[in-house]
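Input/output pair, single chain:
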Amino acid sequence: MQKSITGLEEMMGTKHKHADVIIAWANGEEIQYELKGSWMDINDPDWYETINYRIKPKRVKKEGWVNVYETGYGNLFPTKEQADNCGSRRWRTACIRVEWEEGE
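Output:
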């Protein structure tokens, strides 16, 4: 696929606006398009020049620990050990593990 796109660029003298994303899609990457400020998944893009496309960001799972106090929640710590060693531990009522996902 990449050879034919490169050959087309040479013939036309310009690189397609979405060439890098098209190559990534041909290599199996998931693609999204922008619609009213939000990114939507798309399986078979039409590659319109007026639409923005991107490689779908990878999701990364994260975790941390939060100390709970009678007055509410405290800071987020990357490890339970750090939460346990917090200076205000004696006022803590619980220590909870939290999980979330972030894009790259």
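The chain has a mean pLDDT of 86. Residues 2-55 form one domain.
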